[in-house]
Amino acid sequence: MSTSKFKTICVFCSSNLGKKKSYQDAAINLGKELMMKNFNLGYGRGNIGLMGLISQTVFDGRRHVLNIIPKALMDKEITGITIGEVKPIADMHQRKAKMTCNSDAFIIMPGYNTIEELFKVITWAQLGIHNKLVGLLNIDGYYNSLLSFIDQAIEEGFINPSAQHIIVSASNAKELIEKLEVMLKC
């Protein structure tokens, strides 16, 4: 049983599987880590792609799964039987706001739209809208260029160096969750 203050972790990831099996393996491993630590899952959109793998793994481990999905995406991204609790909402902005309210931390996995979601939660943290940790699951170096860009933005004075602690990065789920738990204690 986890002694962490985390109860629910929001995961942003792709509704696609990606070309590398390592992305799929990482999604399943993240689901297993969340399940073993007794964390609930908050996510948005559907039950396909990497999101489907994580949500099914957490759900199979008997943890609460909350899918906050815009009504316009329900037919497109929920196939077959729904996983966990499905909460339809109006739009993507409301989805991100609800996910922020219903989660104790964020983990971002590889994907394309996940980059926008990453910057949204970072920006909200910088503005004081939330004070939750943001974990970046950097599988096979997927986010190396983005992390370099952020370092350059800090170096160039566009991001305050004190904001550098907002993102915690690791290449696997176990290490990332351990880092997030350590950061939580600081």
Q: Main beta sheet: strand number and arrangement?
A: 7 strands, parallel
If helices are DSSP runs of H or I spanning 4 or more residues, what is the number of helices? 7
The CATH architecture comes to 3-Layer(aba) Sandwich
Q: Strand arrangement, largest sheet?
A: 4-3-2-1-5-6-7
Taken as a percent bin, the fraction of beta residues is 15-25%
Keywords:
single chain; about 190 residues; alpha/beta; Rossmann fold; 7-stranded parallel beta sheet; 7 helices; about 20% strand; globular; Cytokinin riboside 5'-monophosphate phosphoribohydrolase LOG protein
Give a brief outline of the structure.
The chain has 186 residues and is an alpha/beta fold.
Structure notes:
This is Cytokinin riboside 5'-monophosphate phosphoribohydrolase LOG protein. The chain has 186 residues and is an alpha/beta fold. The protein has a single domain, classed as Rossmann fold, CATH 3.40.50.450. Helices cover 44% and strands 18% of the residues. The protein has 7 helices and 7 strands. It has helices at 21-36, 49-60, 74-77, 92-101, 113-126, 144-155, 173-185; strands at residues 8-12, 40-44, 65-70, 85-89, 105-108, 133-137, 167-170. It has a 7-stranded parallel β-sheet with strand order 4-3-2-1-5-6-7, with helices on both faces. The longest helix has 16 residues, at 21-36. The protein is globular. 38% of the residues are buried. The model has no long low-confidence stretch (mean pLDDT 88).
